[in-house]
Design a protein that fits this description.
The complex is a heterodimer of chains A (414) and B (299). Chain A has 2 domains: 262 residues, no CATH class; 119 residues, 3-Layer(aba) Sandwich (D-Maltodextrin-Binding Protein, domain 2). Helix content of chain A is 64%, strand content 8%. Chain A contains 15 helices and 6 strands. In chain A, helix 10 runs parallel beside helix 14. The relative contact order of chain A is 0.10. The model of chain A has no long low-confidence stretch (mean pLDDT 79). In chain B, strand 1 and strand 2 form a beta hairpin. Chain B folds into 2 domains: 216 residues, Rossmann fold (3-Layer(aba) Sandwich); 61 residues, Alpha-Beta Plaits (2-Layer Sandwich), CATH 3.30.70. Chain B starts with a strand and ends with a helix. The chains are: A alpha/beta (414), B alpha/beta (299). Chains A and B meet through helix 1 and helix 8 of A and helix 2 of B.
Chain lengths: 414, 299
Amino acid sequence: MKKIYEVARWEYIEKIKTKTFIISLILTPAILILFSITPTLLTEQEVTHTKTIGIVDTSGLYINGIRDKLSEYTIKNNQPNYLVINLTSKKGSLYELKKSTDKDVINEKIEGYLLIENAGTDSVSLSYRSKSLGNHKDVKRFEAAFNENRIKLRFDKENVKPYLLDYISQSVELNQIKIEESGRETTHDFMLTFFSSFIFIMLLMMMIIYSGGMLIRSLVEEKSNRLIEILISSCTPNELLSGKILGLSALGLTQIFIWIMIGISLAGTAIVPLEAFSNVLPILVYFILGFIFYTSLFVGIGSIVTSEQEAQQITTYLSLLLVLPIIFVLPALENPDAFYIKILSYIPLTLPSFMMLRLNISPVPMWEILSTILIMIISIYLMIDFSGKIFRVGILSYGKRPTLKELSRWLKEK
Amino acid sequence: MLVVENLRKEFKNVVAVDNISFKVEEGRIFGILGPNGAGKTTTIRTVLNIIKPNWGQITFNGKPITNEFFNIIGYLPEERGLYKKSKVIEVIQYLAGLKKIPRRKAYSEAKFWLQKLELEQYIDKKIEELSKGNQQKIQFIISIIHNPKLLILDEPFTGFDPINQTIIKEIILSFVTSGKVIILSTHQMETAERLCPDILLMNKGKEVYKGTINNLKRNFGVNTVKIEFEGDAHFIGSLPVVKNIDRYSNYAEVQLNENIDPSEFLKMLVDKISIKHFSVLEPTLNKIFIDVIKQTQTQ
């Protein structure tokens, strides 16, 4: 036991001092925050100038209504958001008019223009022509302004009372409510669910890549300079392996602890919504178990690689397995009870991240939580045993990477 | 006393160590000699309990070597290297800790040995800042810091300059008087000749010779005498005991047949010529080594 502690202590203290650790400690949350807030920041970026929008309305029926509607939108200082100008001209054909107005757009005289083409009384087509597609918000407003106007015109014609217009234009939105067993109900917010699952899966993945890489590198170093021989003439391979796993897990816990501290201090702010912490306890358990599981896997694999390049490759492949759930976030949100999601949340390699995902989407029955945790603990035990067997032989084999056949023989060796 | 009996270790299709037995007593340095790939390192690793032999028994003071022996074994592997990015004192404390030396004791012991090897100014330096020779000295300290009862040194002198070789040699010899069991593996014959009274010569996993160096020289050395004389020495070449002669006017080197005692040969001469000088030429271990290895290879 004392020797396991010695190894763990060494691994912990030596690794915590490395630049890689400090960088990953700061960089990982920084990247996550960047990923999560940048899109919000960008879409909510304030408009600072009034946009000049042209209207070509050959019928002349809609232009005034649209102008009135659009003038309701303002940006800061009560400045209007849009300046609507009439570009309809009776001269020349529609084709020529389009051509000359397009030129105005190209020359940036106007931001873009609405083209309303009347083919008959009930057939009308609407297009917005601008240099770039996009600005979703503007286009939605134009569309709404036109449609409202169109209905209004018809209502006037049919002598329908104008207040009915408001009634029609207000459609009822469907709210999704997530019922939790405690009776608590929360609004199902796609972004939030995505974000809170995503943040933990990403953290787990990045941590495993960083520390797994670190572990393999140090094993390669110990192997290449034969330090390993001194080590295992001082303690058993199992003590060495357990010490390494323990030290690295302690390192991981330190990292999580610091991140949780950061998270708590940011909780409730725009960056980290409070709801992201609602299932934090079971998630933390899966997180730690997942980390220990992968660390033990890495120790076994690390003992058979012979160069850093090889180590890099293997780390990359393994971490891809961890990203897998991110691909499944969308389908899982649509159907959290899908069979394959359940299956994947019972396979040790993907279990931690899929359970983290499921916990965030819908309530998971207690027996499933307990059984998956049990599965994880048993898998860790088996993985340590498996890695230990490979480790024992692997650390003393230099040169060529062993074949699968050789590996299976190592596993049988007593 | 370390006793190794009928040791055999096979790797995939290769017998690395084949039926090796030897004993090492306290206060004696036992040399394991042999060319590269002879099986020295594998023998050492099995003694260290790093790998398990397919066959054979290893006991230390009557008990089989198990993991309980870790703390009394000191080992200097052939290939050197330490944690480059870590500080000298921390590396020493860690590896001493693995031998169950408390940190504080490890610190004072480290200081003592660093001073003795003139390295005290590097105590807080990183390993990579030290020269290669100094790194090796650190590794030597690590192998002895816990005062091991069984010390195994694999090529301890390679890479050291003559001054440091002498320092290391003196430390090793001081352990002899303190009654440690020491195994020294080398392919440098001079080292073995100077330090090891008993040796095991290995080739291709097999024992080629085991015993004292003196015996080896007697058994494998070419039986050659050198004589200086006055008188007619032509008759020597026709003596049945003589295999070969290299004769000058009053000086000759005579190679005798095996199992002929040089003193018998002397008796045959004294009546016929006057002998000014008579000596048995000692072959160097180096020459024996090459001869013996060649012999076993052609067999």
